[in-house]
Amino acid sequence: MSTAASVQIRTAGSAGFHLNRRGRFLLVGFPVLVVAVLAAAAAVFFGVNGMAPAAASEERPARAVQSVTVGYGDTLWDIAGRAEPDAARNETILRIGELNSLDGADLQPGQVLFVPTSG
């Protein structure tokens, strides 16, 4: 009868699977951490996009624009001076770049640009 006494009976709860600290973190903590980071990123994304139109409209009122055809030898400096002679040319050049999505200062004769108008 000594053999029957030495046999251990395993129940459903003691299947030999025990989580250590790292296992508990990977099973519970890591998914919670990922969800928290995604929620924070979504809050920042939607918060910034929700405020952007209001911030842009307060900083710069809408101004009228006109189209100008680039002539041979024209530069952004020249065009900015003709478009808004009383304004700072560097600011006008930046505005022309924004209106036309320009990457640089290279212009081609015959190119049509939108420029802000003074007034």
From TrEMBL:
The record places domain LysM at: 66-115
Keyword Transferase in annotation = no
Give TM regions: 25-48
Which SUPFAM superfamilies does this entry report, sorted A to Z? LysM domain
Instruction: List the keywords (alphabetical).
Output: Membrane, Transmembrane, Transmembrane helix
State the name under which the record lists this protein. LysM peptidoglycan-binding domain-containing protein
PROSITE patterns this protein is in?
LYSM
The record, for Pfam families, names: LysM
Q: CDD domains per the record?
A: LysM (cd00118)
SMART domains attached to this UniProt entry: LysM
Matches recorded under InterPro entries:
LysM (IPR018392), LysM_dom_sf (IPR036779)
